[in-house]
Specification:
The structure holds two protein chains of two kinds. Chain A is mainly β. Chain A is built from three helices and eight strands; from the N terminus they run ααβββββαβββ. By secondary structure, chain B is an alpha+beta fold. Chain B has six helices and 17 strands. In chain B, the strands form four sheets. In chain B, strands 2, 3, 5, 6, 7, 8, 9 and 10 form an eight-stranded antiparallel β-sheet that branches. A four-stranded mixed β-sheet of chain B has the order 12-15-14-13. Chain B has a three-stranded mixed β-sheet with strand order 4-1-11, with no helix packed on it. Classes of the chains: A mainly beta, B alpha+beta.
């Protein structure tokens, strides 16, 4: 028996919530059971990957470049050990000195070869990439606006294409049907103003495989 | 793809976080005169500080209490309307009759600007000097700092090593002389700010500019002190120009007034710093001028005249900067009539005091 509803003695909200949860559990047992997972006998023919990218800027001496990227890879052999593909990403970083604010936009364009091995619902891969990073550098003179500078005295921009190569370890994990996630990371090499510059890049993304 | 990209875009050199510094402004200066006595002539752009003279200096200049007090004021008070340096912002070597360029890579910082963020201004003087110690910068000096009670007696920071830089001219020496000043204004100009005012002149434009004014007489300025605003600048003496104009300066003969441009001020607030009379006479040889006087009272100040007397000691003529030291038997560092004095030796003054200030009340 529920107590009579009176303005000075309302029913407890927690009791109603608990009762509602019990009804849901009894009525929809199938929906709440875990999805059965099965191992993957062979890698997917194709993998589309969209990632959040974190990397050392290609040309800036310091900072963290953040952005987004995408890649597509396709099996090269029936055994599934080798694949090839292409990737592109955009990331940006802004750093400040007493003199300038420098923003670099890095557009990384790569062709890649992949050596991979399926394990359970995952795939461990080593991705070797080569290509170029298109860098857009925007330098704004600190205090320039306050000083009344304009034009190139205030702001200068430059495009530059840097030859680049990456080595990345990649893990693909299929989570639900064709959808999964990926984690990648590894060293990068850029040729900046005729000199080699080492860096790193990493990504965390969503994959779709077919 | 990459090769195609390289061929399309080309290879431009990235600068990154380094590279050449873009000047915010260049100021062209030409100094004329006989440079034969200058070993290392240079010019500096020096931002000024807001400064008010000590009441003693104002009162004694207006109506001296005694000949001795007047002599102390003459020896120890710098020009009441002088340009007081705060920061050396740019420096360059100069040659007679040829253009020199002063390059500013930073705006004046907030502490050398007067006013709030929507209305603040900075003024600079272009100072010609002989870099006596060859360190490539105009060395600013402090008068001796007075320490708070319980700390050692007055101390001098000594300034830069070597002989002091000798000032041979400046574009802005004092408000009582014609001046040319570099101005930087942010926001709207507030004409009520008493920062090297140019009464009667047009407001400076926003950003950098070169301003001129004819100056006013010290007597007229002292007469206007009780009323507030300083006198109008001489008619027709005001001018405003951009920094694309060349500034022409003439070499002058070094003088105490010019040399004072290398002296900063310890306190810009127009207050005196009082110290306790020490047990022993601070100047037994009487190498400094001194006078026993009452405490100064400005006619616009309704706080009344503090009771008692002070012994005011002037800096020596051989010192780099002019300054005063105020000794009292009772008081606090900023107020000789404070309700709870930091020191009170009126009942047992030191022996030397009775000779120096025999009328102590």
């Amino acid at each position: 028996m529920w107590p009579a509803l009176r303005p000075d003695f309302p029913p407890r909200r927690g009791v109603w919530s608990l009762a509602f949860a019990v009804v849901l559990l009894l009525a929809y047992p199938a929906r709440l059971s875990a999805q059965e997972l099965s191992g993957i006998s062979s890698p997917a023919k194709g993998t589309l990957d969209a990632q959040l990218v974190l990397a050392l800027p290609a040309a800036l001496a310091t900072g963290l470049s953040t952005g987004v990227g995408a890649s597509y890879s396709r099996l090269a052999t029936k055994s599934g050990t080798f694949a090839y593909g292409a990737s592109a990403s955009w990331s940006t970083a802004t750093e400040y000195t007493l003199i300038d604010a420098v923003r670099n936009d890095d557009i990384r364009l790569r062709l890649c070869g992949i050596v991979q091995r399926p394990t359970g619902r995952g795939v461990f891969a080593l991705r070797l990439s080569a290509g170029g990073t298109l860098v857009y550098e925007d330098r704004t003179r600190a205090q320039g606006n306050r000083a009344g500078l304009s034009g190139s005295a205030l702001d200068t921009t430059t495009w530059s294409m840097l030859p680049a190569a990456d080595v990345e370890g990649v893990v693909f994990l299929r989570v639900w049907e064709s959808w999964g996630m990926s984690v990648s990371g590894g060293p990068t090499l850029h040729i900046v103003n005729s000199g080699a510059r080492w860096g790193w890049s990493s990504g965390l993304g969503v994959t779709w495989q077919h | 793809m990459a090769v195609l990209g390289i061929s399309l875009v080309g290879c431009h050199k990235l600068v990154g976080l380094g590279g050449a510094v873009t000047p915010l402004v260049n100021i062209k200066v030409q100094v004329n005169g006989d440079f034969s006595q200058l070993a290392s002539p240079r010019i500096a752009l020096v931002w000024g500080m807001q400064w008010q003279p000590e009441p003693f200096c104002v009162v004694e200049a207006e109506s001296p209490e005694s000949p001795a007090a007047a002599a102390v004021a003459t020896a120890g008070c710098p020009d009441n309307f002088r340009f007081v340096p705060d920061r050396d912002a740019a420096d360059a070597p100069i040659q007679p009759g040829s253009l020199a360029t002063l390059t500013l890579v930073d705006l004046p910082s907030a502490d050398v600007m007067v006013g709030d963020i929507t209305s603040r201004v900075a003024y600079a003087s272009l100072i010609v000097y002989d870099d006596s110690n060859s360190n490539g910068t105009f060395d600013l000096r402090h008068p001796p700092h007075h320490r708070r009670r319980g700390e050692p007696p007055p101390q001098d920071d000594g300034g830069a090593a070597g002989p002091p830089d000798v000032v041979w001219g400046a574009s802005f020496i004092s408000m009582t002389l014609p001046d040319q000043r570099v101005a930087f204004l942010e926001g709207t100009f507030n004409s009520t700010v008493a920062f090297y005012p140019r009464s009667g002149c047009p407001d400076p434009p926003a950003g950098f500019s070169l301003l001129s004014a004819g100056g006013f007489s010290a007597a007229a300025a002292l007469a206007s002190v009780p009323n507030g605003p300083l006198p109008l600048e001489a008619s027709g003496s005001c001018a405003t120009a951009g920094l694309d104009q060349t500034v022409f300066l003439a070499l002058q003969t070094p003088s105490p007034e010019l040399q004072a441009l290398s002296c900063m001020a310890n306190d810009g607030g127009g207050t005196s710093f009082y110290v306790e009379a020490p047990a022993d006479d601070p100047d037994p040889g009487l190498t400094h001028l001194r006078a026993c006087t009452s405490f100064p009272h400005l006619s616009a100040d309704d706080g009344g005249v503090p009771p008692g007397q002070q012994l005011v000691v002037a800096s020596a003529p051989t010192e780099d900067c002019q300054y005063l030291t105020h000794y009292t038997l009772r008081g606090c560092n900023n107020d000789p009539a404070c309700a709870t004095p930091n020191w009170n030796i009126t009942a047992s003054p030191p022996g030397w005091w009775l000779n120096a200030c025999p009328v102590q009340q």
